[in-house]
Amino acid sequence: MVKTRIAVVTGSRADFGLLRPVMHALKDRPQMELAIIVAGSHMVSPALTYRDIKQAFPDINADAVPMQIAGRTGRLEDAAATGTGISRLTRVYERLQPEWVVVLGDRIEAFAAAASASIGGIAVAHLHGGDRAEGVADEAMRHAITKLAHLHLPATDRSARRIIQMGEPADRVKVIGSPAIDGLDAISPIRDAAFAELGSPEVVFLLHPVGRESEREEAAAVGALGALRGRRVLALHPNYDPGRDGILRALRAAGDIRLLPHLPRDTFIALLKRLAASGGVLVGNSSAALIECGALRLPAVNIGSRQSGREHGTNVLHCGESQAEIEGAVARASQVNRAAISHPFGPGRAGPAAAETLAATDPRRPGFLRKRCTY
Q1: pLDDT, mean of residues 302-307
Q2: Higher-confidence residue: 242 or 84?
């Protein structure tokens, strides 16, 4: 049997959590050969989340592609890191000779991976394309990856329609749901001892920068933390995006919260399940609030504009950045009918659906790599 080599590129803790079920599904198919490329913020201290990948896939020798430099954040630093990623990923592709490169979402690591592969004549499959989310450069980056990709695996029907409206052929678009939902049922709520070690939180706080100056990001974080005063809060470090340093200053200056760089995904999901059962809430602007928390029926307060326009479950309460608005949204979260929460992200079979679609699509077919706008 001639195996199809598929390189999955992960650039952050967030996309690895979603790509992991896809990787397992590909690994389980005998006609597929899984290669893993670990890029970008996985190698940045202090979280060093590449260790999560080594633990999940100990029998695969993943390639490492450093991009960012610890302590250096900003829009121009991101641009420089993207260029570094394109160059280094090209050398890895040259050695691995994959027939597919698989990326997810909208971060610079995914863009660098898709750009290098598409320009280099390698088929690109893109998960979670067609979504809307303002983020830092997310909206433009995600749609740019769509135009570089040859196969589209969106999470929802609405995202699929948006991809087709962008001129991508409908027969190259397959709705699979979000892999963030895969495997949630298999994770039990965090046990009492581990929950106590985390401070028995009532609130998980996960706030990412939206690309402003560090001082403005710091002020926004200070206001949000002020709204949570008097509650038991566990906060996680923000993404490695421009403005991160300001949020970290606010988190470190808050003396009444528990602060951790990172939680492994299974522990994070187990904690969210415990919060869902105990009347807790997630506060911030993470996509986990919109996707995973919807599936777990955990109310979430989404602050500011980072996720503007993005689909989400009925668990989400939107608010501005003022302390009063956040306090009001947190109060309303306690009144959400948790039993009635629903979400649009599928039944939790996205990983196998992605693997099946890749297996059924021949990237060697004449003309497959030739991009054509349908209008």
Answers
A1: 94
A2: 84
Whether 171 and 234 map to the same domain: the answer is: no
pTM of the entire predicted model:
0.93
Residue 271: DSSP 8-state? H
Confidence class for position 136, pLDDT limits 50, 70, 90: low
**Letter string b/e over residues 191-229, b meaning 16 or more CB atoms within 10 A of that residue's CB:** eeeebeebeebbbbbbbbbbbeebeebbebbbbbbebbe
Q: Which of 244, 209, 219 is nearest to 72 (CA)?
A: 244
User: Beta partners for 102?
Assistant: 8, 125
| Domain containing residue 53: CATH number | 3.40.50.2000
- Structure confidence at residue 74 (pLDDT): 84
Handedness of CA 154, 160, 166, 167 (dihedral sign): positive
φ, ψ of residue 301 to 5 degrees: the values are -100, 120
For residues 303 and 333, is the Cβ–Cβ distance under 8 A? no
Q: Is residue 74 part of a domain?
A: yes
Examine the pLDDT at 49 and tell me if it is beyond 90: no
Residue 369 domain-assigned (yes or no): no
Residues 24 and 112 in one domain: yes
Cβ neighbours, 10 Å, residue 136: 22
Q: Which residue has the tokens 């028995």?
A: 200
Cα separation, 291 vs 302, whole angstroms = 12
CB 9 within 8 A of CB 109: yes
